[in-house]
Amino acid sequence: MNFARLKYIIAYVCIAALITAATFALSYRSTLNQLSQTGAVRIEQARDRLLGQLASFRQLPNYLAKHPIVKTVLQDRTTSATASEFLLNTALISGADNIFVLDQTGATIASSNSDTVHNFIGNNYAFKPHVRAAMNGRLGFYHALESSDNSRDFYIARGVSLPQTPHAGAVVIQLDVAALEFEWRVDEEVLAFFDTYGVAFVTNRQSLALLRETPDQNTPVDTRRYAQHTLQPFFKHTKKQIFGHTLWQFKNTDELPAQALVISKFIPQIEMTARIFMDTQNAKSTARIQALLVAAILAVLGLGMWVLLQRRQRLADLLAIKETANARLEARVEKRTAQLRNTQHQLIQAGKLTAMGQMSAGISHELNQPLAAIQNFAESGGKLIDRGRNDDARDNFNLIIQQIDRMSRIIRSLRAFARKEKETVEPVDLQSIINESINLATVRCEQENVTIIRQGLEKPVFVMGGQVRLQQVVINLITNAIDAMAGQPDKKITLDLKQSKDAIHLIIQDTGPGFTDAARVFEPFYSTKEIGASKGMGLGLSISYGIVGSFGGDITCRNHPSGGAEFTVTLKPAPTGGQ
Question: In this structure, what DSSP letter does residue 184 have?
Fold first, then answer.
C-alpha cells in the first residue's frame, strides 16, 4: 500500500468518525429536547394537581369566618365544647388535619384537637405571615415544618370580623402534605417542590422529603435542624450543561437516576420551585444506536470505495474480488437485517409492556378514590370511638364496607373484561347511571366550561347490563367528548335517551370537530390525541365497545350533520318486572 492511498484511508476514517460523533450529538440533543418537553408537561401536571388539591380547601376558611359558632367564640373569648366539636366535625368532613381559631392577639382559643394532649390552645401565632395576612383582610397562605414530628403542613387563614371589631381574630386551616401526596406517589419520574431554603417540601418520593439540595445554615429556626439532611450524599459533585440542558449525576440510583435531566419551574402561587429529574439513559441509548447505524453504513461505503480502489490495481482478479465482496456484504446485510428485526420485535414487546404499565397506573387511579375514602372513614371512625360515639363510628364502618364492595366490583369488572369472563348481567337503572356519571364529570365540566344537556326519557329506564361497567362506558364517552372539544368556543354535550320497540338508545353528541376516520374509532391503541394531552393509550373506546358487547348491545359512531361527533349506545331493555 503506497503512502497516498494510506492518506485517503486515514482521511476517510477521520471524516466517518466526525459524522458518527455528529450523529450521536444531534440525536442526543433531539432526545434531550423531547425529554425536556415531556418533563415540562409533567411539571405542569404536578403543579395543576397540587394547586387543585389546595384549591379545594381555599373556600373553607371563608365559610368558617362567617359561621355563628366561630363568631360566638371570639365574642366570648372562651372555648366551648360546642365550638370544639364543630371544628372537629368540620375537619373530619373536609379532610383537613386541624382547624383552629385565633383571637385578636393571635392566641389560639379554639381548636379541633382541643381534646388531645398536644393541642393548640394557648399557642400564639401572631408572628406567622399567614396570620398577619388574615388579620389585614387577605387570605393567608403559608407552609411550615413541625419539628416535633417532622410533619410538613400548609396553612390557610382568613380574618374574622365582628360588628364592633373589624379584625376580631382569624380561622386557620392546617393541611398535612403527606395526605396530599398520597394520590401521586406512583409517578415514574422523581419530582419535588423545593421551598425558598432548598428543602424538598412536597415530593413523590418519601425518602427525599425534607432533604436539602445543599447545606445552608442561614435558614429559619424551624428548618435549620434539617441542614445536615441534604441531597449532597447522592451527588457525584458534577452538574453539567449539555445543549442548554442541566444534567445532574447521582451516586445512589435507588431513588434517583444515575444521570438525570433536571427541569425546574418556579410556582409563584405556593412560592416553591418544582423540579423533576428525568432519566437520560434511554436518550443516550437511542443516540448510541443511531450513531452505530451510521457508522455501519459508513463502514459499508468505505468498503465499497476500497473495492473500487482495488479494482484499478487488480483488473485480473476483478471477478473473484467482486464475488467475495458481494458475499461479505450480503452476509453483513442479512445479519444487520436479522438484528434490526430482533430489535423491532423487542421494541414492539416493550411498547406492549409500557401500555400495560400505563393501564395498571390507570387502574390504581380508579381505586385511589375509594381507598382515600376508606382511610378517611377509618380515621374518623377511630376518633369517634375514642369520643364514645359508637353509633356514628358504626356508620363510618358501614361506609367503608360499601367502598370495599365498590372496589371489588371494579376489580371484578376489569378482570372479567381482560379474561373474557361472563360477568353477571342484570337489570340496572340507566337513568341512575347517567345521573351518577354526570355528577362525576361535573367538576371537570365546570373547569372546561362545558354544558351538559339532558333530553329524552325522564322516567327510570331499566336495561340489561352491569352497574359499574355501564357507568364506566358513559363516563368514558363524556370524558372523550370533553377532550374533543378542547379549544372550541361553544362546548356542549347532549345526552338523549330514546326507546324503540325492542331497544334502549343513549345518544351522546358533542360540538367538537368530529371524526377524521370514524371507521377506526374502536380499534385498540388508536387515538387522535397529541402526546402529552392525556394519559390515554387509545384503549378507552375499544374497552367500552367490548363492555357493551358483553351486555348484548352495540356502540356506533358518526359525524353529526350539524357538526360534532355522535355516539349511540344501544342496550337491551330489561324484561317486564325486572325493576
Answer: G
